[in-house]
Amino acid sequence: MMAAMLNELMGPKRNADFGDTNEPDFDEPDVCKHFLVAFCPNEMFRNTKADLGYCSKIHDPALRTKYRQSSRFEKLGYEEDFLNKIRRLDDEVRRKIEKNERRLAVTQPLASVATTSEDGEVESDAQRRQKELVAEQQSSLSAKISECMDKAEKLGAQGKVDEAKEAVRQAEKFKQERTALERLLTQSSTPANHIEDLANQLSKPMEVCQVCGCFMLVNDVQQRIDDHYAGKQHMAYAKIRATIEEMDKKREEKRKKALIEGKCAARLKEHLNAKRTFSLNTASGFLFFSFCFQMSVDRRIQKFTSLLMSLSPSVSSSFLMFPIKTAHTTNFLLLG
């Protein structure tokens, strides 16, 4: 862990001697292959709620450039491993989105039961009960404070100083409790830290972010929405989804291109086979014609070769030996 942090801070060659140019290659085990392809998911989610842990491998832009310019680019399986990794992360966040949506479907109707308070603010049943309970406790504490202060005054008049001080301390304790209740009531009327608690307290409808799966208030203030979209975790999941779409699109284009090239190759092969059949038939007819007229062997070879080359220069190389039978002997034409 410490070595990886030092590598990130000072570079992987921090312990190399002066003038040492022995640089690691991109196919070495301690080089992050995900970073070579596009980015390292561990680095994307560092210090977020979805933290994947620290990546101890080398992240060197120079090695990435070297890999992309090499003849082995996209031939070592790095892209497939990277795509499988980010696809698993995308599947996990999609399951999280579905889970949170089911959770909202259960809890949201309960939070929607609300009324309007005297000051015009919307408050839920839980809020009203909480306010009533706090008000009752405040009244009880105020009564205890008054009782303690009256007791302290009477004890002081009787000359019981220590007992009077104890009554005052008890009254101060009740005052602190009442102040804490007032603070709790004030906090309950202000935005909470947790978005779900905030929505439950204020009875505002919530929605689930379709990128990172976090809870968001519907029609929230624009600043809070912008902060969410600019968050590290949201941007990481958005980049993963965009990268998956881009790589899938590139794969589909390659597949279509290979399919078209395969069809073209098949048609070309069919065309060459048809042309070769035509050439064979033509050559056979020429041989028959030459035998009928008793053409000399040298003359037949010259005419036969010229005929093949005029029909298709590539076809002549497909012939190895062609037997020519006469009445007295057998001659072989060596072609190509």
Automatic annotation (TrEMBL):
Does this entry carry the keyword Coiled coil?
A: yes
Q: Which residues form a coiled coil?
A: 157-184
Gene Ontology molecular-function annotations = mRNA binding
**What keywords are annotated for this sequence in UniProt?**
Coiled coil
Q: Where is the composition biased (Basic and acidic residues)?
A: 125-134
GO biological processes? mRNA splice site recognition
Does Coiled coil appear among the keywords?
yes
Instruction: Provide the Gene Ontology terms for cellular component.
Output: U1 snRNP
Q: Where are the transmembrane segments?
A: none
Q: Where is this region: Disordered?
A: 110-135
Q: Which Pfam families match?
A: LUC7
Family per record: Belongs to the Luc7 family.
Which named protein is this?
Luc7-like protein 3
